[in-house]
C-alpha cells in the first residue's frame, strides 16, 4: 500500500527520506572519500562506518546490491521500542522523528532481521497515540495547541490539524458563521503583508 | 553530501506558509544543475574505465547515480509545488496577479500562470452550449438571494444586473444580489454584513 | 419546480425525467465525486440538462413582471443549481489536475462500450494541462540536465489516487458478495453482503464498481 509521502513531488516525502541511517561500507567506493567528513582518505574503504541519508543507503543496499550494509537507527531499535511499548503517549515523537512513521515505514524496505518488530512497533505506537490526538484535537482551542503539537510527528500533526479544522468548521456551522461570505484567506494575508511592508519602508 | 543545495530548495518550500511564495531561487537551481553535470561527467569517466576492466568503479557509479536521481527529484518537486501555489493564486486572486507576488515568480512561471488562466477560461467557456459556466464563482452554498455589504475600499462604479449604477465608495453600504458581488467579497473589496 | 419547466428530456434512450429528478441525480453525482478518491464517469448529460434548466429559468425571469414573487424563487433556484454544478465541476477539475497522467492513461485504456471518464472539454483541458506542466519542467530543468536524466520517469512521477482511502457510504440496493479483503497467509478472505438502507465506513477500492453502478452512494 503506497503512502501519500511516496508521491514523487511530496515535500514531506523528500524530507523524510533525508533521515540518516548508520551504514558500514562493504565494497570500496573509490574517489568518494570526501563523503566521510571524519576521514582524509580519497576512497570510502570497506569497514568505514558513516551515516548516510535513506535515499542514498537505499541505492547502495538492496536485493541487487550490497555496497553498504545498514543498521537500524537507534530510535527504531529494541531500546526505544521498549519505551514505546511501555507508554507511547508520553514519548516526544517530534524529537524522535519528525518523520517517525514515514521514515519507519521506509526502513521496512530493507532486508533486515528487525523489520517485523519495527513494523509491529509502528502500528502499536500509532494505535496507542491516535486516541489522545483525536481527543485533544476535538477539545482544544486554537491558542494552546503548540504544547500538544510540539511532541507530535509530522503525520500526527496533519491529523491533529485535520481534527481541529473539522471542529472549527462545525462550530462555524453551528453559529451560522459559515453563512457569512468572507475575503479569501490568501487575499487577507497578502493585504496584511503589504501593509506591514509599507509601514516599515 | 550530494544534493544538499537541492534539499535547501525543498526546505524553502516547507518554510513558506499559505499564500506566500519566496522569490524563484535561480541561483540554487543553477547550482543543482551544475552538481548534476559534475556527477554525470564523473560517472561517464568511471563507466568507461569500468567497461575497460576496472569493474570496482561501479560502486561509485551507483552512488553518484543515486545523487543524480535525488537532485532531479528535489528540483522537479520544487517546480511542481510552486506551480501548485501559482494555481491557487488564480483561484484566490483572480486572473490578474498582484504585482508583488508576480515579482517573486520567474518569467517562465508568469508565462505558465497566463497559460493556465487561458486553459481554464477556455474550459469554463466550453461548458454546455450557452457561453459556459464561471467555476471561480459560487464557491460557497448560497444561503440568501441578497446580501448586505459594506464597501472596504473605493472601487468606483458598479452596474447591477437590474441596470442600476452604484458608486462603491469606501464605507458605503449596499444591498446586492449575492451572485453578482460574491467575487468582490472574496477579493476583500466588500464586506458581508450579517446580523 | 414551477409548472413552466416540468418535463425535461434526457437522452433519447433514457426515460424522460423531471427537472427535479435530474437535479437529484446531479446532487448524487456531486457527492459521489466529492467523496471518492478517483475520478468517476463523466455525467455530461446531467450537466447540460441543468444548464438548459438555468437558461429556461432566466428566460422566465426576463418575461415576468417586475416585482413578481416568482422571480425571487427562480433566482434562488438558479443560485442553488449553479452552486452544485460549479462545485461538481471544480471537484472534477482538481482531480484532473492532480492525477492528469493517470487519468489520461485510464481513458486511453477504456473500451469502446464503456462510459467515458472525461467530457470532451475536460479531455482537452487535461491534455493542455499535461503539456503545460511537462513543458514547464522541461524548460526550467529537464533540458538543462545531463543526457540520461532529461525525461520524466513515469513509473516514479505518475501520481495516482489512493483507492484504499476509507469512505462513508449508504447502500441503495441489496448487494451480495463483495470481496473486501483478499486471502493472505494469516487471514482468510472477507466477503460482506450489503443491505439496502445500511450505512458503512469501508475502503473505497472494493466498493468502486458499486459506486459507479449506483448500488451505493457516498456520503
Automatic annotation (TrEMBL), chain A:
One of its GO terms (cellular component) is GINS complex. Gene3D superfamilies: 1.20.58.2050. Keywords: DNA replication, Nucleus. It is found in: Nucleus. InterPro entries: GINS_A, GINS_bundle-like_dom_sf, GINS_Psf3, GINS_Psf3_sf, PSF3_N. Residues 78-174 form the GINS subunit domain. The keyword Transcription does not apply. It holds the Pfam family PSF3_N. GO terms for biological process: mitotic DNA replication initiation. The keyword Nucleus applies. Residues 9-61 form the DNA replication complex GINS protein PSF3 N-terminal domain. Component of the GINS complex. PANTHER family: DNA REPLICATION COMPLEX GINS PROTEIN PSF3. Required for correct functioning of the GINS complex, a complex that plays an essential role in the initiation of DNA replication, and progression of DNA replication forks. GINS complex is a core component of CDC45-MCM-GINS (CMG) helicase, the molecular machine that unwinds template DNA during replication, and around which the replisome is built. The GINS complex plays an essential role in the initiation of DNA replication. This is DNA replication complex GINS protein PSF3. It comes from Patella caerulea (Rayed Mediterranean limpet).
From TrEMBL, chain B:
Residues 143-194 form the DNA replication complex GINS protein PSF1 C-terminal domain. InterPro entries: GINS_A, GINS_bundle-like_dom_sf, GINS_Psf1, PSF1_C. It is found in: Chromosome; Nucleus. Residues 54-127 form the GINS subunit domain. The keyword Cell membrane does not apply. Gene3D superfamilies: 1.20.58.1030. Keywords: Chromosome, DNA replication, Nucleus. GO terms for cellular component: GINS complex. GO terms for biological process: DNA strand elongation involved in mitotic DNA replication. Component of the GINS complex. Required for correct functioning of the GINS complex, a complex that plays an essential role in the initiation of DNA replication, and progression of DNA replication forks. GINS complex is a core component of CDC45-MCM-GINS (CMG) helicase, the molecular machine that unwinds template DNA during replication, and around which the replisome is built. Required for correct functioning of the GINS complex, a complex that plays an essential role in the initiation of DNA replication, and progression of DNA replication forks. GINS complex seems to bind preferentially to single-stranded DNA. This is DNA replication complex GINS protein PSF1. It comes from Patella caerulea (Rayed Mediterranean limpet).
TrEMBL record, chain C:
Residues 66-140 form the GINS subunit domain. Residues 161-219 form the DNA replication complex GINS protein SLD5 C-terminal domain. InterPro entries: GINS_A, GINS_bundle-like_dom_sf, GINS_Sld5, SLD5_C, Sld5_GINS_A. It is found in: Chromosome; Nucleus. One of its GO terms (biological process) is DNA-templated DNA replication. Keywords: Chromosome, DNA replication, Nucleus. One of its GO terms (cellular component) is GINS complex. Its main location: nucleus. CDD domains: GINS_A_Sld5, GINS_B_Sld5. PANTHER family: DNA REPLICATION COMPLEX GINS PROTEIN SLD5, SLD5 PROTEIN. Belongs to the GINS4/SLD5 family. The GINS complex plays an essential role in the initiation of DNA replication. This is DNA replication complex GINS protein SLD5.
